[in-house]
Fold:
Amino acid sequence: MTGWVTVAGLGPGDDALVTPQVALALDQATDVIGYIPYVARVAARPGLALHPSDNRVELDRARMALDMAADGQRVVIVSSGDPGVFAMASALFEALEDAPDRHDTDIRILPGITAMLAAAARAGAPLGHDFCAINLSDNLKPFDLIEHRLRHAARGDFAMAFYNPRSSSRPHQFARVLDILRQECSPETLVIFARAVTTPQEALTILPLSQATPEMADMRTVVLVGNSATRRVGKWVYTPRGAV
Structure:
């Protein structure tokens, strides 16, 4: 049996947003590997082995998938959202780079709807012009680099999307992010706190930067920040497509 590795995005939470490509890969898989809550979203069936693991072991998961594929297994590594956005696709290639004997592995990356896009769609079109995405976690990079990129994105008048804004282990850092935004942006800049979008726990809060507080975000929240032209129209928020 010829093995392969597929890295698949399960979308932001609603099963209706899992793409047909991803559903087919899961139907064909012999093994599913991933972070515990993501593997829990995959229905058990005869002939499918589920391999959940804890957070911060992405390279271990990737190496395991490559080894299993070499043994002829059909492996799907699952991520939430899109696997190429702060997720497992990059980890797989990092592991592959260190394993020359695995370079001929049959690998597929299947896109998914990331939380940033799901949140933007709920709010309207806040990412309708130039934007950037920044992971606020300092697990894999120093926080001073996050500050540097954040400040320059704000000065460039990009709309911004923030992943992993605030956790129990680093509750103070998002306060620093808001301080930097207040230094670089207008107090009327629109901020969207989108929590658990497309799930029953979904909550959407839209308010000016001057009213944003650190406690409004957690690890299930994507924070979207508009640029200087982002504005409300009725209940919606959008950023015009033209230059500002």
About this structure: Helices lie at 20-28, 36-39, 58-70, 88-97, 115-123, 143-155, 173-184. The mean pLDDT is 95.
